[in-house]
Design goal:
heterodimer, A: alpha/beta, eight-stranded parallel β-sheet, globular, B: mainly beta, five-stranded mixed β-sheet
Chain lengths: 262, 65
């Protein structure tokens, strides 16, 4: 079971709700993914269009837990005000905290992230920070009260997979008691499996499913990939070796001659 | 008076944030508000007077990653 801030979940997949071809496909993809947590945002509401009201009805029908984000915020102040608005709007003190450094990489602005996480934790929020694999920043986020960290695999929407696997492994090793969720950069289900095989607690993704040729089928693929990776981690992976080692017993090999052994 | 509503200049005679929301048809809507960069809770909108050049944000749930 995945445990985040005292709540337990069967699924280890957290799914974004943006960029789907239609609301109906979003609904079917959420169901096919078995996700129990979906990310949402808040945006300026037009008095004429009122787009947010219809979207909220759809989310309520899904019956899943919502995790509001602070996407697009570039300062701690913006992120804090956005989190406070989200808490009132969505009725949850969970927040996927994003403070963005620049629009080309969408990488986290780590100083602002730590500042916002500290203030929001003090205000009673349960902060799930979108961060990097940087150990010293992770230390500060944990010190600020975060019991969940969400490092990127690669830049948001890039579909490049785990570009710093060693860094993610180190983070896992340094923080065995912190829930770690790979957030951003996942392209293929095999990327998600790889993250889970490292012992990560979950995977958060959006674009790889929403922009797939068939988002519903891809959602099912990711659900299985994440489950497979988790099972593999729990089962214990064997260590890679440089040289071959026969799987079939050597003893009793017909025509065996000792001088063949190098 | 002129205020900045969701980044756009608009003229309004609303005296406070609650009145502004009502005039826009948001009285019962699922929205959250901020004034000049700071969150204003729903229960405090009526206690939050508006001044010329105030920057008001009115937001609602939307798709997110």
């Amino acid at each position: 079971m995945l445990e985040l801030y005292g709540e337990r979940f069967t699924s280890r997949l957290l799914l974004g709700t943006a960029q789907y071809p239609s609301p109906a496909i979003l609904r079917q993809a959420v169901q096919a993914s078995s996700a129990e947590i979906v990310t949402v945002s808040l945006r300026r509401e037009s008095a004429r269009v009122r787009a947010g009201q219809g979207f909220w009805e759809l989310i309520e029908q899904l019956g899943v837990r919502v995790l509001p984000n602070t996407a697009g915020c570039h300062t701690a102040k913006e992120a804090i005000a956005t989190a406070e608005m989200a808490r009132e709007l969505f009725g949850t003190s969970w927040v996927k905290l994003e403070v963005i450094a620049n629009d080309d990489t969408l990488q986290p602005e780590l100083l602002g992230l730590v500042e916002a996480a500290t203030i929001l934790s003090g205000e009673g929020f349960q902060v799930l920070p979108y961060t990097t694999e940087d150990l010293s920043v992770a230390e500060r986020l944990v010190g600020a009260g975060c019991t969940v960290l969400m490092p990127w695999a690669s830049p948001i929407g890039s579909a490049r997979g785990l570009i710093n696997k060693d860094g993610l492994k180190a983070l896992r090793a340094y923080f065995p008691d912190v829930a770690l969720i790979v957030d951003a950069g996942i392209g293929a289900p095999s990327d998600a499996t790889e993250a889970m095989e490292l012992g990560y607690d979950g995977v958060l993704l959006n674009t790889a499913i929403a922009k797939a040729g068939d988002p519903v089928k891809m959602a099912a693929a990711f659900a299985r990939a994440i489950e497979a990776g988790r099972l593999a981690f729990e089962a214990g992976l064997i260590e890679p070796r440089d040289m071959a080692t026969p799987s079939t017993p050597v003893a009793g090999t017909p025509f065996f001659k000792i001088d063949r052994v190098s | 008076m002129q205020i900045l509503l969701n980044g756009e200049p608009v003229a309004t005679d609303a005296r406070d944030l609650q009145e502004l929301c009502a005039k826009l048809g948001f009285a019962e809507a699922k929205v959250a508000t901020a004034l000049n960069g700071s969150f204003v809770a729903a229960g405090r909108r009526g206690l939050t007077p508006l001044s010329p050049q105030d920057e008001v944000e009115i937001v609602a749930p939307r798709q997110g990653g």
